[in-house]
Amino acid sequence: MFESIQGEGNVIGRPSIFVRMYGCNLTCSWCDTKYSWVGQERAKEGIDYARMSSKQILQEISEFDASLVTITGGEPLLQPVEHLIKSLVNAGYEVLIETNGTIKPSKELRKLVSIWSVSPKTSNAGFSIKYNLEWLQNVRDYYLKFVVVNPREDVKEILSFLQQRNIDHSKVILQPDGTNEDYVNALRDLMDFAKEELQLRVLPQLHRLVWGHKRAI
After folding, report:
1. Which domains does the chain have, with CATH numbers?
2. Residue 88 in contact with residue 61, Cβ under 8 Å?
3. What is the spatial distance between Cα 203 and Cα 16, in angstroms, rounded to a whole number?
4. Mind giving me the DSSP string for the chain?
5. Fewest C-beta atoms under 10 Å: which of 66, 79, 80, 118?
6. pLDDT tens digits for 121-138?
7. The model's pTM
C-alpha cells in the first residue's frame, strides 16, 4: 500500500491510495509488475506478500489523505475483495479496480465500484484470450486500456476487438509498453501513428515518465 498520483487512464493525475493484491491468472510478456505474480506457486507469506484483513487494510489506508483508492495487482479479482470494497465505500472512499477483464465481478462489486479500469490483453502479451465484457454495461463507469508494442500490428487487432464487441471508442485508451527502455520514443511512435490513422486516445503512464520503471511510486 502506498499513496501517489494515478498515472494512467481517465483518472490520470489524481492523488490515489494504491492497494496491490498478490497473484495473477496471466503471465503477460511485457508486465511491469511481475513481482506481484512471478513464482506465485512458491510464494511465502511475509516474504512475497502480507496477508491482511479488510480491517487492517482500512486502518492503514486511513493514514493517507487521498479519497480515491485504486485496487490493483496482479489480478485483484482473484481475491475475495467484496468486504474490503464495501468497507471502503462505507468509509467514504471512491474505489477504482484495475483488472485484466478475464474474471466477471459479482453483482455486488459492480454496484459498489465507482470506476473499472479494464486492460484486455492482445496477442502481444504472449497468448490469446476470449473475452466476455458484457458485464461492463451494468457498471457506473469504465474505460479500457490497451498496451501497444507495435502500433501498426497491435492497433489493427485492437480495432477488431472493439468492433466485435461494439465498444464505444471514447472508452478506449492506448498506451505504450511500460517496460520499454526507450519509453519516450515508444510513446512518440504510438502518437505519430494515432495522429495519422486513428480516432483513439493515446495516454502515457505518467508515473513512468516522471519516475521511471520503479515500484511503489
Report:
1. 2-211 (3.20.20.70)
2. yes
3. 18
4. -EEEE--SGGGTT-EEEEEEPP--S---TT-S-GGGTTTGGG--BTTTB----HHHHHHHHTTS--SEEEEESS-GGGS--HHHHHHHHHTT-EEEEEE-S-SPPPHHHHHH-SEEEE----GGGSS------GGGGGSS-EEEEEEESSHHHHHHHHHHHHHHHT--GGGEEEEE-TT-TTHHHHHHHHHHHHHHH---EE---HHHHHH-S-S--
5. 80
6. 999 999 999 999 999 999
7. 0.95
- Cα–Cα distances (Å) from 89 to 44, 69, 109, 143, in that order, read 31, 10, 11, 20
Each residue of 110-169: pLDDT tens digit? 999 999 999 999 999 999 999 999 999 999 999 999 999 999 999 999 999 999 999 999
Q: Which residue has the cell 511500460?
A: 178
